[in-house]
Amino acid sequence: MDEPTLTYHVKQRCEQRGITEEDIRNALRRRIPPPRPADPGKVKVLGYARGQRILQVVLTVDETVIVTAFWLGE
User: Fold this and answer.
1) Does the pLDDT value for residue 1 go beyond 80?
2) Neighbours of 35 (CB within 10 A)
3) Taking each helix axis from N to C terminus, what angle separates 8-17 and 21-29, rounded to the nearest 10 degrees?
4) Across the chain, what does the average pLDDT equal?
5) For 37-67, what is each residue's pLDDT tens digit?
6) What is the DSSP string of 18-69?
7) pLDDT surpasses 80 at 29
8) What is the pTM of this model?
9) Phi-psi category of 73—alpha, beta or left, where left has phi over 0 and alpha has psi -120 to 50?
């Protein structure tokens, strides 16, 4: 499966939150299952990014588009 696409919105938010694309990719590879429901048509995935920090990544249900991302607890 191809890697999910990042929206303009997530790129802006990541810059504001100090999150890199590599952080997102790591979190998606190192998931803490299972994905959780989010807004309609979306799921939230928790996973380990750099330094064992946990990142929340919101994707479309089919996991083809990343909508936003933020650090757990922030």
Assistant:
1) no
2) 16
3) 100
4) 94
5) 999 999 999 999 998 999 999 999 999 999 9
6) T--HHHHHHHHHTB-SSPEE-STTEEEEEEE-GGG-EEEEEEETTS-EEEEE
7) yes
8) 0.91
9) left
Distance CA 9, CA 58 (A): 12
Q: Are the C-beta atoms of 9 and 27 separated by less than 8 Å?
A: no
**Span 30-38, mean pLDDT?**
92
Say if strands 36-37 and 65-71 run parallel, antiparallel, or are unpaired.
Answer: unpaired
Of 16, 22, 5, 60, give the one whose Cα is nearest residue 45: 60
Q: What angle do CA 50, 58, 54 make, to 5 degrees?
A: 25
